[in-house]
Amino acid sequence: MTSYVQQNQPPGVPPLELTGERTLPDVPAENYWYRRHLAVYEWIAARVGEAVVLDMACGEGYGSAVLARSAARVLGVDGNPEAHEHARLKYTGPNLSFESGAVETYGEPGSFDAVVFLQTIEHVIDPPAVLEHFRSILRPGGVAYVSTPNLLTLAGPGAAKSENPWHLREYRAEEFAALCREVFGRVEMLGLFHARKLRVHEVALRLGWDHVHKRLGLTEAFYGWFTPAIAAGDFALRPDRLDRALDFLAVCRP
């Protein structure tokens, strides 16, 4: 189980265990999923300069720290006590803080320039109510960034949902866009796709790479190098061919 617990944490910071509910940095076997989430945080960070940002359901806290590189102030909020304590101890800065709270109720009306809610709406019981709450706590001209996995690439063909026990509902592109447009007046939909070496790997798989590395006995050596080498730059956001996207990002404005 050691490989699924965070490694090399700062002194006094308790490591978190990988449960499948959230992704974590500092777990080599999880690097693909961590970088996949980090790519979206970095894209948003480039667009929230000088903003007051709420990173809702911030989990381990790494994304809040990324946002704080450019934002005026970032508040990371999570309802899990272990994640909140870990984030509070690990990530510090004059414009970064963490609090414990629920996604359905945290925040006062008109408090934030941006709300960031990544890979979590599939976990909540009442998604429209959560989005309504986010709209209420945005300042005039504010933006909510909401992401979720693409059902068509996460689950098996014809499945209504993947086997992830933490997900209550997963969405197709048109379903997720319709959900966001119930609440927000303007919604821009983007998809996250493989790029650079992950795109090359994707093509190689279609050409039979899975059979080759197994036959040659290269699986462990290759993926022992390849998975830790994946970077956020190996993913890209774009607005086309959403049915083939890995994840969706909705950029929502009232």
Written description of the protein model:
The chain has helices at 31-45, 62-67, 81-90, 127-137, 151-154, 173-181, 196-206, 209-215, 219-229; strands at residues 52-56, 73-78, 96-100, 112-117, 138-149, 186-194, 235-238, 247-253. The model has no long low-confidence stretch (mean pLDDT 95). It is globular and about 60 Å long. The chain has a single domain, classed as Rossmann fold, CATH 3.40.50. It has 254 residues and is of the alpha/beta class. α2 (62-67) links the parallel β1 and β2 (73-78). It has nine helices and eight strands. An eight-stranded mixed β-sheet has the order 3-2-1-4-5-8-6-7, sandwiched between helices.
Describe the structure concisely for a colleague.
This protein has a single domain, classed as Vaccinia Virus protein VP39 (Rossmann fold), CATH 3.40.50.
What class would the helix/strand composition place it in? alpha/beta
Mean of all residue-level pLDDT scores: 95
Radius of gyration: 18 Å
If helices are DSSP runs of H or I spanning 4 or more residues, what is the number of helices?
9
Output the CATH homologous superfamily: Vaccinia Virus protein VP39
**Oligomerization state of this entry?**
single chain
Distance from N terminus to C terminus (CA atoms, Å) equals 45 Å
- Our count of domains comes out at 1
Number of strands: 8
